[in-house]
Amino acid sequence: MAYEIPGSADTDLAGWAGSKDRLRKALEKDEFALYCQPILALEGPERYPMGEVLVRLHEEEKALLPPGDFLPVFEHYRMMPQLDRWVVRSAVQFLMGGKRVPRLTVNLSGQTLQDRDFARFVADQLSASRVSPQALLFELDEMDTLARLDDAARFANAYAEIGGAIMVDGFGRRSVSFAAIGKLGARFVKVDGAITRKVLTSEVAKRKMSALLTVSRAHGFALVAEFVEEQDILLRLKALGVQYAQGFGVHQPHPLASFAGT
Predict the structure, then answer these.
(1) pLDDT at site 20
(2) pTM to 2 decimals?
């Protein structure tokens, strides 16, 4: 799932006196924590072949702030590229060791897509750590991608050149368009939860899911259904032929470190 930022940045800034310096110090002192929500394979031998990386911020008394509490501030100060770099460095470090989730997916913000140095940064991190690009999948939100299609395509092409892959996230949230998928050469498409939640009850949702499955088979990308919260929905997705599922009904997020080991 993409970064979810409820409300506006202006509203959320109210409680962040000196917030820009606060965020810089948090980055310098590694005051963030990474969580992981495994993604279930509905076919094949590997149960959890990948997991989405989720970021939290340590606050006073060891409380962990959810993204909606601090990402608006990063957005406001245009500091998302710095945060995304921190997440990538930490994810690559995790991937260097033995792990029970072999592939991590990392969300990229629209601001980071405009950073022309980011693709080189990712390549350098992977090369220095001897981690395969196939172990790190980047999620690009569909609306961010459509708003910055050239920037997104430039990053996707650069990452594909070293063997990496892209997932388009939030697909079908407003309308169904395959422009972003084709332009990015996306290998995975994450179906928006508004479709997934209604796949048992809404004819529109059923038609959208069926259309996505037809196109995915024709063009060779896999579908990930997000916000799967009920077993009946999970069973329907599997029967339809959806390849992957994610949500609280599949696996709750846990600290990334808890997935270390083989």
Answers:
(1) 84
(2) 0.90
